[in-house]
Amino acid sequence: MSILNQRWSELAAVKRELAERDWFPGTSGNLAIKVNTEPLSFLVTSSGKDKRIETDEDFLLVDGDGAALEETKLTPSAETLLHVEIYSRTNAGCSLHVHTVDNNVISELYGDEGGVAFKGQEIIKAFGLWEEDAEWHIPIIENAAHIPALAADFGQYVKGDSGAVLIRNHGITVWGKDAFEAKKILEACEFLFSYHLKVLSLKQAKSLSLRA
């Protein structure tokens, strides 16, 4: 199997699993996986596709500028430049972007603070933090409609071969050394967001009941 076909299969498996979680509402979200480092090329999801359906037009190969390497009627995902920032700045091999209710709510709750931190959760080990009192922080950037401007802002927070950034009321982008690590980071982030929102809701309900 060629490297291109192997990477296609890996990305298709991730898309399939995330689709089963219903993390692609309204054709939102985009996925990418590196094929070659020099010169840079990567597979990225085609724009406007229903990601619950698998076809031979799910992904297209683009270069280091995010332009299609072969003549095609397909259009790369609108956020392809975010993936370009990741692959041009790090050794990451896979990057994932999804819109969920939980990550959008978290980004709005803490957007004015520019980020949110989590600690005291076992799942933080997914980020390589093994200390007992480890704290993990995720930055939140504003959602610029102009994608090049959004990519430039996003790029300021791409500093390692794995990581995550929330875009306010837009979604989360994560990356890792390969598809497995990127998916692990995404799952850990979504777990933390969901847990945090449930705790806030329970605390509010308890406070209201004490006042009654």
Task: Give structural attributes.
EC 4.2.1.109; 8 strands; 212 residues; zinc ion binding; Methylthioribulose-1-phosphate dehydratase; methionine biosynthesis; 38% helix; alpha+beta; 5 helices; 8-stranded mixed sheet; Aldolase_II/adducin_N; L-fuculose-1-phosphate Aldolase
Overview of this protein structure:
The chain is of the alpha+beta class. The chain has 5 helices and 8 strands; from the N terminus they run αβββαβαββαββα. The protein has helices at residues 3-20, 80-89, 101-110, 147-155, 179-211; strands at residues 30-36, 41-45, 59-63, 94-98, 115-119, 135-141, 163-167, 171-176. Strands 3-2-1-4-8-7-6-5 form an 8-stranded mixed β-sheet, sandwiched between helices. α2 (80-89) runs parallel beside α4 and α3 (101-110) packs across α5. One of its GO terms (molecular function) is methylthioribulose 1-phosphate dehydratase activity. Residues 9-197 form the Class II aldolase/adducin N-terminal domain. One of its GO terms (biological process) is L-methionine salvage from methylthioadenosine. Pathway: Amino-acid biosynthesis; L-methionine biosynthesis via salvage pathway; L-methionine from S-methyl-5-thio-alpha-D-ribose 1-phosphate: step 2/6.
